[in-house]
Amino acid sequence: MVKKTFLKGSIFVIITLIIIFVLNSLFIIKTNHRAKLAQGLYTNTGDSFDVVLLGSSHMDALINPNTLWNKYGITSFDYATGGQPIDVTYYLLKEVLKTHKNPIVVVDLYYLGSPDKFGNEGYVRSVLDNLKFSPNKLDAIINCTPQKQWANYFFPIFKYHYRWKELTENDFNFDTSKNYYKKGFNVSHDLYGEEDTSNPPTTETADIPPKTQEYMKKIIALSKKEGFKLIFTNTPHDYNKISKANSWVPEPAKTVNEIAKISKDNKIPFINYCNMMDELGFDFKTDMANAGHLNVFGSNKITLNFGGFLKENYELVDHRKDSQYNEWKSDYIKYVKAAAAIDLAKKKDQSK
Amino acid sequence: MQFTSLNFLMFFTIISAIYFILPHKFQWLWLLICSYYFYMIVNSKYAIVMITSTIITYLSGLLIENANKIINEKKSNQLKKLWVFVSFSGELGILFMFKYYSFFNKSLVRTLNIFSIPLHLPFFDYLLPLGISFYTLQALSYIVDVYRKDVVAERNLGKVALFVSFFPQVVAGPIEKSKNMLHQFDKKHVFNYDRVKNGLLLILWGVILKIVIADRLAIVVNTVYNKPNNYKGFAIIIATVFFTFQIYCDFMSISNIARGAAKVLGFKVTNNFKQPFLSKSIKEFWSRWHVSLTSWFKDYLYFPLGGNRLGRLRTYSNIMIVFLVSGLWHGATFNFIIWGALHGFYQIIAYSLKPFKEKVIKTFKIKTEVFSFKLVQMLTTFMLVNFAFIFFKAESLLSAITIIKNSFYFNPWTITNGSIFKLGLEPKDFLIASIGIILVIIVDIMQRKKNLSVQLSKQNIIFRWATYLAAVVVILVLGMYGPEYSMQQFIYSQF
């Protein structure tokens, strides 16, 4: 009797969990983030990336994998998502490392400036909802979200079931591979049109919030443990125009100096593009889409510089002549056409 | 820890697993520990009130039994009555202080003010301890049962404490009499697959009733009843009918979950609802609605008052007393008293008009066994119940009067022009709510003829499992739970 009950009960629980699994993927909101994380983590793992790019929306538009490919023959993928807190980045990196062994890991550290214990739920969900169930995901949920919300992260259907009224065909047949040619890169073609109002550079330092500092150190420790090479970046942005919606460190420039110090102590390259704008001929008015994010033109300048840095400092093979990488060539052409179509549409808009 | 929460699911799974592993002699102790844990999660301080009530119950049981042993019958009876009086005073005194003192205080001061007599009574306004109205009635049933020698006084304080605090029932019943429940704590409860499965099915149905149907209906009800001045005609009628089904689903849900949880553990608890909306009279309605309360009042109030054995007038007054007390038991407001009074009044009218009704039926040769006649009876009963529920739901007497007044407004276009979808539920949710009501009616009609649980168990495994899994999917997808919805408390857990 007990054996029979246990068996029946177990089968019922397993079927229920399978149903929950199916419902989860049906009800989770289908965003570009979902598509690109699926591409980079699960569906396109046949591609081995030389470089993986992580961080928040700053990184989303910082380094263009297609330009890196076209100019240097380097393969890369951008895993950045809007508002991605650094603790979430740490677990996302661990997920990336499951399928990509020893890539060069580039992390933008903008979100080290957030003093919050937990990131904004929507931003955290952009990543956690799109990770497959695994011990790493459990760790991420436990460490990056409030305890009261754990069940809703473990089982996203608990959160998203209200969407039963608004499900569309896209929810049932979401094509995650459609934009793979972009390699996770997401940039605007808009021009900001305003000058940088940041104060003159300073050499002073200010504390990094305890939690983000802890995760910066965890990322460094992980690089030593796993043996991958790590590079930190700071994207050009206006320090004085950080969104008022976020709580943030009071003096970001000084916090960035502290980041540079810790990076130096750990022999991790830290490329602070905020301090290199003159050197790169970066025009804030025309190379930024807004006060915090680069546009396609600014991104090109940074990517060319970054590619040169990689070539100079790391032994990276140029894959452009390797027939195994033919798909990268065709993806590049797709990317160029799509970018040209955006520019054309913008021109038409302007001429109206 | 609400019955429909994930926390309760985990709590119940763990405690049940341990319960079945434990040797029989420790099972009751485990249930007592779990019951107090369950109770104290809400507010640990109020466990003191429950413990006090338990001690009064326990001691009075022993004292009454000792009095039973006195050979001198007169002396024995006097002493027994004294202990019943003392223990009733204690139990009802606690209930009065927490539930009614503030109401009587305000009412008295207000009344005396009319005659310019100033009165200042001490203030006592504490939050109502969870389940106090329910466990007090259980405790009183024990005292009377010992008095009547229906049960032997329990020598084990722990078992009396468990009878008062048993976690499936403590929040909102069903109210069990000690003669039905106490002996069950001594029985050995082993794991039985079919019993556990049936218990879990009751819980599953209970969860659907609450978070898929009742909480959806509640949105329309609250929208209208919170601002009755803003709504007229059909909006009010719809909200009132929705409330009748909301409270039915809500209360049946908590009763079913309690019954299901008790069943899993091996206990048989009263079924509180027996298709009440298929009743053909108010009298029949009360034999099908909140059965455990009706049965309690019948056993411990109506019969001791003389029931229907002392002539027509006494019967009427006894009915009225029972329903006034029932109204007051629900809450210390005039609205509950009026709600109770209305039900008493309905029944007195029905008794009084019975000869006239029979004469009309005979004169006009009305067929009473045909479906149409029964349907009219059911609809009439339903409408009367609906009307009384206006007082139950409305926030104040004035509010209830406004609702009644505003319902006399003929605006059927609100159904066709989409206005009804401005009552808080958008069309798709309104449709689900309406399907929910229809489902409950269909289930009730089917249950009246056959036991659905038995019928389901006769089906092939694929159909059975498909039904269970479909129920899980309905809860997961259509349930009003999670961070996007605000969880609605069970209505009866607030009494």
Instruction: Estimate nothing, just give the exact number of structural domains of chain A.
Output: 1
**How is the main sheet of chain B built?**
none
Low-confidence stretches of chain B: none
| Domain tally of chain B | 2
Overall shape of chain B: globular
Shape of chain A: globular
The sequence of SSEs of chain B as H and E is HHHHHHHHHHHHHHHHHHHH
Class from helix and strand fractions of chain B? mainly alpha
What is the SS-derived class of chain A? Answer: mainly alpha
Q: Can you count the beta strands of chain B?
A: 0
Instruction: Please report the total strand number of chain A as a whole number.
Output: 5
Identify low-pLDDT runs of chain A: none
Q: Distance between termini of chain A? A: 78 Å
Separation of the first and last Cα atoms of chain B: 16 Å
Pair with the biggest interface: A-B, 22 and 21 residues
Question: Approximately what portion of the residues of chain A adopt beta-strand conformation?
Answer: 5-15%
The topology string of helices and strands of chain A comes to HHEHHEHEHHHHHHEHEHHH
The major β-sheet of chain A equals:
5 strands, parallel
Word description of this protein:
The complex is a heterodimer of chains A (352) and B (495). Chain A is mainly α. Chain A has a single domain, classed as Rossmann fold. Chain A is built from 15 helices and five strands. Chain A has a five-stranded parallel β-sheet with strand order 2-1-3-4-5, sandwiched between helices. In chain A, α4 packs across α14 and α4 (65-72) crosses α15 (326-351). Chain B is mostly helical and 495 residues long. Chain B has two domains: 6-190, no CATH class; 195-494, no CATH class. Helices cover 71% and strands 0% of the residues of chain B. At the A-B interface, α1 and α9 of A face α20 of B.
